[in-house]
Amino acid sequence: MTALSMRGVRKRFAATVALAGVDLEVAAGEIHALLGENGAGKSTLMKILAGAITPDAGVISLNGTTYAPRDPIAGRDAGVAMIYQELTLAPHLSVVENIRLAREKTITRADATAALRALGLTNSVNTLVKNLGPGERQIVEIARAIAADARVIVLDEPTSSIGPMEASRVFDAMRRLRDLGRAVIFISHHLDEVRAVAERFTVLRDGASVGTGRIAETSDDALIALMAGRPLGQLFPVRTWAAGGVVLKIDALAGDSLPRDASLELRRGEIFGIAGLIGAGRTELLRTIFGLDAVRAGHVRVGAWSSSTAQPYLNLRHGVGMLSEDRKNEGLAQRLPIATNLLLSSLNRHARHGVVDDRTLARASEPWLARLGIKAASPLRLVSELSGGNQQKVAIARLLAHDVDVMLLDEPTRGIDVGSKAEIYRLLASLASQGKAIVMVSSVATELLGLCDRIAVMHRGVLGAARAADAWTEESIVHAASLGTAKDVA
Question: Is 319 exposed, middle or buried (0-12, 13-18, 19+ CB in 10 A)?
Answer without folding.
Answer: buried
